[in-house]
Amino acid sequence: MLTTREVSIDDATTVTHMVAALLGELEGGQMQDGLDTQLVVDLLAMKERVYGFLAFTEARPVGLIMLSESAALFARGTYGIITELYVVPDQRSSGVAMRLIEAAVGLGTVKGWGQLEVGAPRQPMWSRSPNSALYLKAGFAEIGPRLKLPLHGLASQRAKRNAAGRSRLDPRRQRALGRVPDSSSARFA
Fold it and tell me: Whole-model pTM?
C-alpha cells in the first residue's frame, strides 16, 4: 500500500540519499560534490518556505517531492516550485510520482498558491512523448525553458573583476543600471 506524509527534519538522511540519487541520475552518474546532510537539515528547518513529502510502500521510502515557496507578480502572489521529484527505479510507473504531485497540489491549495511550477530536464534520456510525460499528465503546461546563474562563489569572482575594472554585465545592462555613462543619455541631461 502506498502512503505519503510530509517530511520532517528527522527525515534528513532519507531526503539526502534520495536527492543524491536524483542528482546522480541527472548528471549521468557523475556527481561532483556529495550532498551535505546538514544543508538538508537547515533547509527542512525553513518550515515556511521549504516543504516536502515522502512516499512509502509499507515502511520503505520509495519517493520524494521537495517544494519551495516563492512570490511573483506574474503569479499574482505566492506560488510553489517543485525543486526535486524522485522515485526509486523499481517503483517508477507505479503511481508514486503522481501521488507525490497530488500531495504538492494539496499543499499549494491549502497555502493559497496561485500555481505550481517545475523545471523538467531537457536531456534526451528524459524526454518522452507529450502524451505520456508525467507533468503533462498531471495537468502542467509548458511555459518554456528555464535558465540559471550560479551565485555560489560569485561574490569572490565579482570582487576580483571589480578590482580589475571589469564587470560580468554587458555594456547595455550596465547603462540600464546607471553604472556606465551612455552618450545617448547625455542628450537628455
Answer: 0.73
